[in-house]
Amino acid sequence: MRPHVSGSSPKKKSNTITKHCRVHFLSSDSNSNGGFNPYNTNTIHSEAVVEEEGSDTTNLLDKVEVFDLSGKGVIISDLWNDRKTLVAFARHFGCVLCRKRADYLASVKDKLDAAGVTLILVGPGSVDQAKVFYEQTKFKGEVYADPSYSSYKAFSFVSGISTTFTPKAGLKIIQLYMEGYRQDWGLSFEKDTRTKGGWQQGGVIVAGPGKSNISYIHKNKEAGDDPDIEDILKACCS
């Protein structure tokens, strides 16, 4: 029998995106502007397989263009159409927490390579910002810029002051500074980041092969909300 979320009835199989392991889904309540409400903290935490309607997300992703470090544009879902990928979505390219996440994921790159999984990081910002991030971090995977933030909107990643300035995030930043990580304040205070991405949260997905084949998704509920690395490895490499 297929596992289901505790306290709910099993759902019939439908045309969905299937999402695995420690998934944090926030409710689809809308704000007054018709977008995602970043202050809603209703979440589902499940070790079971979770299904939710994904056709709208798939359609939106087919229209999202991201750019590699050379400035070449590509539809984001084409990144995993012909291969299996682990894709991390950064808060912004100057974020100290995202630099830690980049190292966190790169630390298992040998296991990803052995399983034929490509490591990718997407950040909301410009190609120039992406280049600076890549040069500073020496990230071992592919890096793409999403200047329009469209992929974040497609996944309904949360955004807002209340998701950025939290006690847990503050303690984690102190810990990272003690470890030697640093925020790039120049990138952080560039106009585009300040006006559009300063409060943005990201997430992690495992996707492909196939544009609609998203087998795992973790949506950060606050800054620095890293998924368990073992859950990621189970989703992408087992």
TrEMBL record:
Coiled-coil regions listed: none
Pfam families registered for this protein in UniProt: AhpC-TSA_2 (PF13911)
InterPro entries, sorted: PXL2A/B/C (IPR032801), Thioredoxin-like_sf (IPR036249)
Gene3D superfamilies linked to this entry: Glutaredoxin
Domain of life: Eukaryota
Cellular component GO terms, alphabetical: chloroplast
SUPFAM superfamilies on file: Thioredoxin-like
PANTHER family for the chain: PTHR28630, THIOREDOXIN-LIKE PROTEIN AAED1, CHLOROPLASTIC
Protein name: Thioredoxin domain-containing protein
Species of the source: Papaver somniferum (Opium poppy)
